Structures are given as C-alpha cells and as structure tokens.
Amino acid sequence: MSQESLDEPQTDQRPATLPWIVAGLLGLSLAGLTAWVGWNNYDLGTLDRPGPGFFPLLVAGFLALTSVIALLESRWARFSDETIPWRRFGIAVAIILGGALALPYIGFLAVAFIGGTVLAVLIEGSFRWRIPIAMAVMTVAVWLIFEYVLEINLP
Amino acid sequence: MNLLNTVMAMGPMEGLLHGLSIALSPELLLAALVGALLGTIMGLVPGIGPVTGAAILLPLTYVFDPLTGMIVIAGMFYGIMYGGSTTSVLLNMPGEAPSVVSSFEGYPLAKQGRAGPALGVIAIASFVAGTGGVILMSFVAAPVAQAAVVFGSAEFFALTLGGLIVLARIMGGSLAGGLLPLAFGLFLGILGEDAISGAARYTFGVREVSQGVSIVALAVGLFGLAELLRIIIHRGDTPYVGSLRWRSLIPTRDDVRNSWGSWFRGGGIGFGMGLLPGPSISLATLLSYKVESLFGRDRKKFGKGAISGLAGPEAANNAAATSSMIPLLALGLPFSATLAVMLVAMQVHGIQPGPQLVSTNPDLFWGLIASLLIGNIMLLVLNVNFIRLWVAMLRVPNWILLPTVVALCWAGIYAFRLSWFDLAVAAVLAILGFFMIRYNFQIVPVLLGALIGPLVERHFRQGLTAANGDLTYFFSQPIAVGIWITVAVLVLGLPIMRWLMIRRENSESSAATTPPAATS
Predict the structure, then answer these.
(1) Which positions, given as ranges, span the membrane (chain A) (predicted)?
(2) CB contact, 8 Å: A35 with chain B?
(3) Is B24 part of any domain?
(4) B193 at A interface, C-beta within 8 A
(5) CA proximity to B487, closest of B311, B305, B290, B333
(6) Is residue B517 a part of any domain in this protein?
(7) Is residue B516 part of a domain?
(8) pLDDT tens-digit profile of B454-486?
(9) Cβ-based contacts of B58 with chain A (< 8 Å)
(10) For residue range A86-125, what is the model confidence (pLDDT) as tens digits?
(11) Domain count, chain B
C-alpha cells in the first residue's frame, strides 16, 4: 500500500448536490404555499393581538431562509455512498405505503399477513412454506394483543 | 396557592418517598416490569435504537392511565438501553449510538469467553449509576422547576425557540442540515386547529388535519418505519450467538475490584453530561471511556477486553439517560431524540411537562421519578434471571422479527386516532425520513419542531399581547437575555471552534509535509 493511500482519508462520500437542491426547492415551494394560503385565508391580527395567520407567516419566512441556505450549501453537501437496492426498496415501500392505504378496506389481519409475508420473503431472499405459517401466527398474535390485552379494535 | 406551596415545600427525599408510596402499588410495579421487559426485547433487535424502539412501543401504552403509561415508557427507556448493550457485547452490533463504546471492550471480552461477566458488570454498573442518578435527580429536578415557575412568555419564548435552534444546530452537521428540517417541523406544527383562536389552519378540507398531524404517526413514521425500511432493504443475516448461563454472569473478584471505581466515575460524568443538549449520552460514554483509559485499574488491557472500559461507559450511559430527563420534566424541553419520543408519550396521555408539572401533578412527577428507581431494580432482576431468554431472542431470525415490528407499527399508528389517514402520513414520513437520513438531513429537528412549535407560537403571541405589541419585550427581560446569549454562544461558538480546529490541523499537516529548509 502506498504512502499516499495511507495518508488520504478513506472516504466513501459522494456529492449530494442534486438532492440538496431538490430539498431547497421543495422547501421554497412549501414556504411560498404557506405564505400564500396564510395571507389569503387567515386573520393576521395586529402586533398587540396577533391572529392565527401571524405565526405561519413567520414559519414561511424561516422555511424560505433555511431553503436558500440549503441551496447555497448544496455545493458542499455529501452523503455516504451506500447503494440502494432499488428493487427491494420499491417492494418495501409498496408494502409499507400499500399496507397503510389498504388497511381500512381489507382489514388488519389481511394487511399484516400479506404484507408480512412479502417482507419476510424479501428479507429471507426466497419463498419457503414456513414464512406464511410464521406470519399467520405473528398476525394473529399482534391482533390478539390489541383486541384483548389493549382492548383496541383494529379494522 | 396552598397546594402549590405544599408541593414546593416538599423536599427531595419527601418527594421521592411520596413517589415510592404511589409507585410501589402492584399495578405500577407490574407496569415497570412490563416496560423493562418490552424495552429489553426491543433493544435486542440489532439496528433498533432507543428512539426507534420507544417510537414503536409507544402505542402499547395508550390503554394505561397517564402515570402507568409513563412508568411503562420509562421502564422501556432503560430496557432498550440494556438490550442495546447486550448486542454490543455478544454480537459487536450496538443497538444504539451510546452502546457503540460498550463494544470496544465488551466484544473482546465475549471473544475470550467472558461475555457472562461482561454482561454482569454492565447490569451492576447500570444499576449503581442509574440509582444514584435518580436520587440526584430528585434533588435537582424540583428546584429547577421551582426556579422556572417565575418565567413569563419572554423567557419561555427564548427557552423554546432558542432550545430548538441550538438542538438543530448541534444535531445537524451543516447549517441547513438541521435548520431546514426544523423549519419543516415548525410547519407541521401549525397544521390544524389554532390553539388560541380555534381557527382551522392549512387543513385543505381534510377532516383529519384539523386535529393536527398525529404525533404518533410522526414519531413512528420518521423514527420507526424509516429505520425499519433501511434495515429491510439492506438485509442483514441473523447472527450466530453462543449459549450463556445465568451463573456465568457473576463477575469475578478481580472484575469487581477493577470496575467499582468506574461505576462512580462513569456515573458522575454521565449525570453531568446528561444535562446538556444534543447527543450528550453518546458523548458521556466516549468521555468516560477516555477517562477509564487514563485512570482505570486495568487500563493496560484497553482494546483487549478491559472491564473498566466497559463499566465506566455503561454507568455513564445510564446516569446520562436519567439526568437528561431533568430538562424534560422541569422545563418541558427534550434535549435528545429519545426524550422527544418521551414527550410524545406524555402528550399522548395529555401531560405537558414543564415547571407547572410538579405543582399541578405532583403524584405524576414524583411517581415517575420513583418509578425510574424501581425500573432500575426491575432491570437488574430481569437481566440476571432472563439472560438465557435474551440470548435466545437474538437467535430469532430477522425475517420474523422485522415484519412483526412493521405490523406493530401499523396497528399502533391506527389505534391512536382510529385513522387510516395517519397511517398514510406515517408511510410518507417513513419514505421522507429514509431519504433525509441518506442525504444528511437530521430527522430529530422535524419531530422537535412539530412538538415544540405550538409552544413557541403560544408564548410568542401571549408575550406580544402582554407587551402591547412591543417586540423588544422578548429581548429585554434579564433571564431571557441570558438565555439568548447562551443560545448565541452555542450556535456561533461551535462552528468557530470547529473552524479553528480544522485550521490548526491543516497548518500541522502542511508543516509535517514541508521538507526542512537546507541549512548552509
């Protein structure tokens, strides 16, 4: 190993300029929306009696300011280069988001069983019959805890 | 006023005894046991730290009354930390940041076949420091709260807004890395009904938003589901764990001789550091490790399994966790992410901690402090007797554990307000949190902004009304001025110090690489 490679910091950091610009622009948009909606819909009141629209305007200003700072800092922003396995990410997000949206329609038992099985297969890497069996036991156990121990009705 | 005087007149020991008289009921003892048990189990899941664990377990406390719920949460808090230390020693996989230091000496001890004594010393050091911390806490918390009773809107505005800015700056590496998430959190905090006028704000016709963003969806989504998402996609194999018997936990005479001083040194460091904002618990463990490497009896063994290098940081960890509750209970300010989740738990039960808590709800205030003491004893008993169970827990494969935890999150978020909208919000926040962590934006300020933001607004508007619209009121009261000066020093002083250190390092490295001038 050369001396240079020993002296150089072992870095796996990559520029995060684009994500930071996106974050800054999203922040600016949100600030604009907050200010516009607040200005047009809520009473600002006066300094000695501020209304419900007063503080949101300050928040919008702070949001805009920090978004501009993010845009300015984007040039130096870095992140750890840990590759995202996009297929796995897509499936996991679909399960977490889909499960949340489907819960009121198909109920907790179905969502937890189906979602849990897909996640377990994703983690394990392949389908095995023990997975749906274990997930069925887990689903019923969680349901029983909420229904009978915590006395909270799940859909 | 009489009640206030009576409560304030209660000394720390009387207060602690009063708390014990409440917390020693069979139901509350069971609550402490359940909390410590659940917390330890959650802490054993590698990758799940105290924040994620507390967020995931939070929904399980809904059914309890406020005091019982808080006792369960406090037990969980300690339990998660012990669980995290166990995985540090046995697997070299710290469950949480403060446990990282435990793996430095704990894992080499485990590799030498001394995992049992290592875990035994952790249990004893944690117990000694935690118990001492709670006793000290009972002396400090009530006077701090008492001093803060005189605070008006100007002081509270400075404390809440200044505290948020300091925490966002300390937690975020860059300026926008902490402040932009804070601004987003403040935005989330203004959604829903205005607490003063009752006007609905930014609801866009969605009924669920009129009640504000669910704090449970926020905490579980940002901390629980986002972290689970990260663990699931970077699939980790279930590690191999050997067997352990409870008898093997008993430390040898040498272990005790080498570590007893560290229990107290670590405890003292931890208690002091825990009172500071930011990642003070992690810093306390690091500082304690450094101190033990200088003063520990077995310092020559450092890096190869020194028991003092394990006992000191563990004691610091527990003492800091205890003392960090003082600002939360006495001022209503959470100084760390875990405490922010604790604040969520309190708000779920309708409790707003702060200077008034000791006077308006002394049973809860002293009951909680006493229950921390009981929680420590429970944890010692649990850790000694159930070590084989914990080791067996570590063998449960991730493909069973992680989907179960996701299902618990779904059920818990829904159960809080029986709202599917909250589930959708949590899922979206999980994805947002995942990318925020990836690109070095801090997620803690989002939660803090949403939690503390409404308090900032209330004190700001009340202060303006009280001062007839005079903005200088916030910067002219002596205590408020002191708070703002402290905020300025912390916010501006740290970057200046960092800049000076970088400059010094650069000049040293350039001096080292410059060839010596030829002499004639």
Answers:
(1) 20-39, 54-72, 93-123, 129-150
(2) no
(3) yes
(4) no
(5) B333
(6) no
(7) no
(8) 889 999 999 999 999 898 999 988 889 998 998
(9) none
(10) 888 999 999 988 988 888 888 899 999 999 999 999 888 8
(11) 1
